């Protein structure tokens, strides 16, 4: 029963919901990036490289043979290293990585503004306000103690 109780606490805390939302948004974001690379970025690259389609690029290790053309009547599949698909996946990866970097950078900037108790443009969270006021009170008390000990 301990595992079920821990799972219930995990689900109630919101961690499970956050993970699920992250997975769903990540899957949708992956589709957008995939279309962006295949339909927006790759065609101009193909034009610049005289019509070469990166997704079709491969190194053939063994040619495929159709069933009717082979002596035994069995088809032989082509064996190839599809480095063009790797190039597209790397472009996907760099776009996703750069986009996530920008989003995290913006979130950190907003978080820094929100946690600055002297910034009046953004509502400061209550815990930061309380800590700031405690810090101010401690500084005032320290100044009073220094004056009294002199």
TrEMBL record:
Any Pfam family matching the protein: MscL
SUPFAM superfamilies assigned to the protein according to its UniProt record, in alphabetical order: Gated mechanosensitive channel
Localization of this protein: Cell membrane
Gene Ontology MF annotations: mechanosensitive monoatomic ion channel activity
GO cellular component terms, A-Z: plasma membrane
Keywords: Cell membrane, Ion channel, Ion transport, Membrane, Transmembrane, Transmembrane helix, Transport
Annotated transmembrane regions: 80-104
Membrane topology classification: Multi-pass membrane protein
Assembly and binders: Homopentamer.
PANTHER family for the chain: LARGE-CONDUCTANCE MECHANOSENSITIVE CHANNEL, MECHANOSENSITIVE CHANNEL MSCL
Functional description taken from the UniProt entry: Channel that opens in response to stretch forces in the membrane lipid bilayer. May participate in the regulation of osmotic pressure changes within the cell.
Family assignment from sequence similarity: Belongs to the MscL family.
The name this protein goes by in its record: Large-conductance mechanosensitive channel
């Amino acid at each position: 029963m301990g595992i079920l109780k821990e799972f219930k606490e995990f689900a109630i805390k919101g961690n499970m919901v956050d993970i699920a939302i992250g997975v769903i948004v990540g899957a949708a974001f992956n589709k957008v990036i995939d279309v962006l690379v295949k339909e927006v970025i790759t065609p101009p690259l193909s034009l610049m490289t005289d019509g070469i389609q990166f997704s079709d690029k491969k190194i053939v290790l063994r040619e495929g043979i159709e069933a009717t053309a082979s002596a035994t009547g069995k088809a032989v599949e082509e064996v190839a290293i599809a480095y063009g698909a790797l190039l597209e996946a790397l472009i996907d990866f760099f776009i996703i990585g750069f986009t996530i970097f920008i989003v995290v950078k913006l979130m950190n900037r907003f978080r820094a503004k929100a946690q600055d108790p002297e910034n009046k443009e953004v509502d400061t969270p209550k815990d930061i306000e309380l800590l700031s006021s405690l810090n101010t009170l401690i500084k005032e008390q320290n100044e009073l103690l220094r004056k009294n000990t002199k």
